[in-house]
Specification:
The chain has 147 residues and is of the alpha/beta class. It has helices spanning 12-25, 40-52, 67-73, 87-95, 111-122, 133-145; strands spanning 2-7, 29-32, 58-63, 81-83, 101-105. It has 6 helices and 5 strands. It has a 5-stranded parallel sheet, sandwiched between helices.
Amino acid sequence: MRIVIGCDPNAEAEKRELCQYIIEKGYGEVTDCGSEDPIYANIAIKVGELVADGSFDCGILMCGTGLGVSIAANKVRGVYAALCADVYSAQRARLSNDANILCMGAFTTGSAVRKLIVDAFLTNCFVPGCSSQEKVNRFKEYDRKRI
């Protein structure tokens, strides 16, 4: 799996920890898009574009709360970013909503929980034809129509 990760300066230490964790767990290749830009929207859009164009299979974004990066990433066509603060939400983001970017808050989730959330996100995937298919089709159709 090709994973791209980015954050604002508030989450630099947490991002480094997750990069190492993902490598140790063998989830795949991790590309760090940085954390220097204090404008979280810039890194969220960059990561979003890289996922949307197929350069990466999925992405992970962090800022203080995760709210800003999730809002910004979801402005990119083809991005389905989910803000997750618990394991169940991360599982459902993939299984029910076909999310391709995980967003988390550095100030709102602790290290152990963040790792469990990453585990849930990276070990689950959307199953075509599942009971959520029609719902996912609807928002993807709308997304494709946006200018």
